[in-house]
């Protein structure tokens, strides 16, 4: 008949409610499928029914070599397989059987009992014969249950490989929220630029990176995770000096004295965070001719360098930003300036960390 034809027949029978007992599932679904997968179903030393495990019985043991189980198969009535995995795992643990399969005819669950985690976490794959395509069903049954694959060890190898992928995806899923929260809190300049450019695409006005930074801060502080609300957007637009509507209120500007830089007991005036950063780098380079080289050797942003000998290395793939947002602090060294105050404070802190301890104690710089 062929496996595909048998599966079509089973699907029709399931839809018609033809399999009403464990015996009908075994004889009408399981054993014909095993036969099509190459198993000698009439050799009871290889396909062993009612396999004994310490006064209990597993419905079928698929053996290789003879009478040595390689796979345990437990059969239940259609729709009644929930909770049976615990019993199946106990059987497999007693004899160290590496693979176990639980089926009610419609659903097939493939397990690796020896792996870590809850019962459901040790499930490699689950097939519903009425939900999956015939190609997918046939592919999985061949992968895990074909006689030649089981006896050669290829089926177990494939199952373990698939389990590792499932486990990896589970770890990824658990850590995605943490990664997203970390990205928002770090506020990398690339993220801020993407946000600013998207706002510009939508309304024609590009917000300052500090406006974007405040927006993300408010989202995190208000909700724990970013969720845009009209009230928050309105508050930020009111603070932006690039708002399209004139306001009778005084614009909120940062006073010069809010930016501070003290270098070796001397105070320097600055009108912006970028000016504080640039001045500090110029002073450090003048004080220590190895500073810029040592700073450049440190890990910088996720994708960008804060400092480079070629200004186009500061913004890979964005020559427009390199032209408009970089400054040559000394001959041959370029510093990127397209950052929010929070980013700039991080860069300043890194610069102080790189500077000599004796000098570091005599520097104070604040922009955020």
Automatic annotation (TrEMBL):
Parts of the chain that traverse the membrane: none
Tree of life domain: Bacteria
Segments of this protein annotated with the region Disordered: 226-253
GO molecular function, one term: DNA binding
Basic and acidic residues: bias regions: 226-241
Name the record gives this protein: Type I restriction enzyme R protein N-terminal domain-containing protein
Organism of provenance: Rhodohalobacter barkolensis
Native organism taxonomy: Bacteria, Pseudomonadati, Balneolota, Balneolia, Balneolales
